[in-house]
Amino acid sequence: MIINNETRANILIDSLPYIQKYNGKIVVVKYGGNAMTDEKLKQAVMSDIVLLTLVGIKIVLVHGGGPEINDMLKRIGKKSEFINGLRYTDEETVDVVQMVLAGKVNKDLVSLLHRNKGKALGLCGLDGNMIVCEQLDKSFGFVGEIKKINSDIINNTLDNGYIPVISTVGTDEKGQVYNINADTAAARIAAELGAENLILMTDIKGLLENKDDETTLIKSVGVSEVPYLKKQGIIQGGMIPKIDCCVEAVRRGVKKSIIIDGRIPHSILIELFTSEGAGTMIS
Asked: Least crowded by CB within 10 Å, which of 70, 143, 273, 275?
């Protein structure tokens, strides 16, 4: 489709109120799912993030890397195990998690942002003692429960004009490394930073009234409605922890949390720069 110059100008004019609204504000994006494994989608996400920073929005990118961890474990002949949606993380697995997330995945994203003319700095929860945690439960192995977020290093990175790209490994007071759920980490980081928005990128359209019908998208949910929706079975399965993270972020002061479909190119721009938005908003 060919877009003429007048249409281009109108698109920019329509975006202006949203650019003004978010200028100077912090938006935390949790990046994962299909948007992270599909190269074309990955390119679109990185270019969107660079664009957002150029119009004055402070983006903090928090990422997972489940498929890459699975692949590395498979290479060394180790089976991936999950308990209630959380990766069982023994001593060998936590080393792989740290290597893959804080190493390859993190630096690949930083490199891609730079190739898109952005300025990014790769960080993990160990840097600046950013994510302090303790063991969630012995049955999960070295999976951490966040106790404190030290945000100084994130704010310093933003203040110097860089995009913080954060991998979610944390440490306890004794220096033991833990694997942290990326959604949980993004929610706590957003709250600590006083973020305007938390955006979780997923592999589905959002919260659906009927999980098998994407036309039943629920566009907005109030925090007080969540228990009822759980009771009705509308919030179920893997959506429960995502909604809980969104609720936690809002209760801790984030203006709104949004679950968006990372399979749609430029879904972040659609969410921030249109009145319709994308996905499900929890506020």
From this structure: 275
Helical ranges in 160-220 per DSSP H: 182-193
DSSP per residue over 65-83, as a string?
-HHHHHHHHHHTT----EE
For tokens 């804080």, the residue is 102
Alpha helices in the chain (DSSP H): 5-22, 34-37, 39-54, 66-75, 91-97, 106-115, 152-159, 182-193, 226-231, 239-251, 267-273
Report the candidate in 83, 64, 89, 102 with the shortest Cα–Cα distance to residue 181: 64
What are the residues facing 60 on neighbouring strands? Answer: 28
The mean per-residue pLDDT over the stretch 235-261 comes to: 91
Whole-number pLDDT of residue 37? 80
pLDDT > 70? residue 28: yes
- Map out the domains of the chain as residue ranges: 23-282
Q: Is it the case that residue 34 has pLDDT exceeding 90?
A: no
Q: What is the CATH number of domain 23-282?
A: 3.40.1160.10
